[in-house]
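Running co-folding for nicotinamide-adenine-dinucleotide.
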Amino acid sequence: MSGPRPVRAPRGTELSALGWQQEAALRMLQNNLDPEVAEHPDKLVVYGGTGKAARDWRSYDAMVRTLRTLKQDETMLVQSGRPVGVMQTHEWAPRVLIANSNLVGDWANWEEFRRLEALGLTMYGQMTAGSWIYIGTQGILQGTYETFSAVAAKKFGGTLAGTITLTAGLGGMGGAQPLAVTMNDGVAICIDVDPRAIERRIEHRYLDVRADSLEHALQLAVEARDARRPLSIGLLGNAAELLPRMLAEGAPIDIVTDQTSAHDPLAYLPVGVDLDDMAAYAAKDPAGFTTRARESMARHVEAMVGFMDAGAEVFDYGNSIRGEAQLAGYERAFAFPGFVPAYIRPLFSEGKGPFRWAALSGEASDIHKTDKAILDLFPENESLHRWIKLAGERVHFQGLPARICWLGYGERDKAGERFNDMVASGELAAPLAIGRDHLDCGSVASPYRETEAMLDGSDAIADWPLLNAMVNVASGASWVSIHHGGGVGMGRSIHAGQVSVADGTRLAGEKIRRVLTNDPGMGVIRHVDAGYDIAETVADERGVRVPMREG
Ligand code: NAD
């Protein structure tokens, strides 16, 4: 019987598969399970609750074995983390096709999913866990940086210098907020009830200082703001208590958001409950705890709305706190928008989204060379330059060295082709795996997040991610995946991913040009179809054909 063991992708140029396309899939599967990358590698869990790379260890072994013998004209089929077939295809076809966690509509809920999972019939693939292109916390840091950069562009003349952001939650993902704000030159006050969360963020250099009190936090923030100096400040306390207090005292806050784990009421500390008693109370009386947590969230959101009324920029950062506050009876919970309709949708309309690549050589120098190539290719993009420079200084690689940045339609293909040329010329030590998050411009239907409040009301239309997967298969991606439930849970999202391997061959260059044009092209046409002006302009200027606008 095969069981848990440490997994690490091989480095260097020696192949254990029959070609680089297969080798890349193998190394990226193994990299997702590298203890430096995965949250619980022994359980095959990569990130995001229970997002897995393989269904069980036997399936993992079968995938490794199959990838090592897979030919250039064969395709391995993966059904929720288990290899179920190998078919003869052709060299333009993906080497791996993946479908994870999909359930028929009426059955698409956690209860049924967990029943099937317990029977060993499925697994939760999250987004990049089951599609083998997770790169550690760099992804969330960059996404958060991009969001705050979009806030700066929309409201503050392109920089957060001279502004104060107020937020809460310094956990696994929320902990990226202070650094993302300071990377945009702003000041952040970040509240958390758990002193360990504050200490951990300071240790990892994501957070600069800890304040002794609310007054101290405000004093530090105002000084830094006036000097236009970036600074992030940790403040211990309950957000549902501190936000109303700060509002009442007229604290000079410009931007408010939140990343406490509000999506799960048993993980949000109600006012009046001690942190040390939280777990026992939640376990003993989950219903009572939920009621109290929701009441606190209502006070928290009420204060956020108050800041909005006072002129601050306020948004929900994808943690469902508005929905929970509404359940507690607070009527204005949805008075402020989610971050996608507020800032990200204009980027999605241009086909922009999280583009990422990993160096299969294992050499950090390969990534540094690609960083330089990106800066040369897009000299005019200031925010991109700032990110690449800061990422080079501040991001520690986890597993295979990797980089993420947001590029749009007409940009990703340029970068991909340049990378392939760099592999061909020997400038890079080995090929690159080029992919993206499923949270992208034209690859996801998720009405509580990526497709919240679409202009034409098409939030729940899931044809788009399916078309996205099909066009990537038709364009020559190396592996393509269709998942359900990533990010927001069962029944709430359908999304697709692709990874393309730049192995330096002419064939790879041809495939990459098509995939990295058509994949973000889905974002442009999806937003043209929904009636977004920016998307229409991009389609006109960059030559994206939309039949309903022709003739
Ligand atoms: P986490 O559980 O690791 O951290 C949550 C933090 O909130 C903890 O440190 C906890 O101490 C703190 N907290 C709980 N109750 C509090 C209260 N009343 N006052 C102050 N602090 C409190 O969670 P995470 O991984 O950081 O994610 C946070 C939330 O953000 C989740 O709901 C997640 O789904 C959401 N999220 C959304 C996106 C997105 O949509 N792009 C991205 C990242 C995270």
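Result summary
The chain has a mean pLDDT of 96.
Residues 138-331 form a domain with the Rossmann fold fold (CATH 3.40.50.10730).
Job closed.
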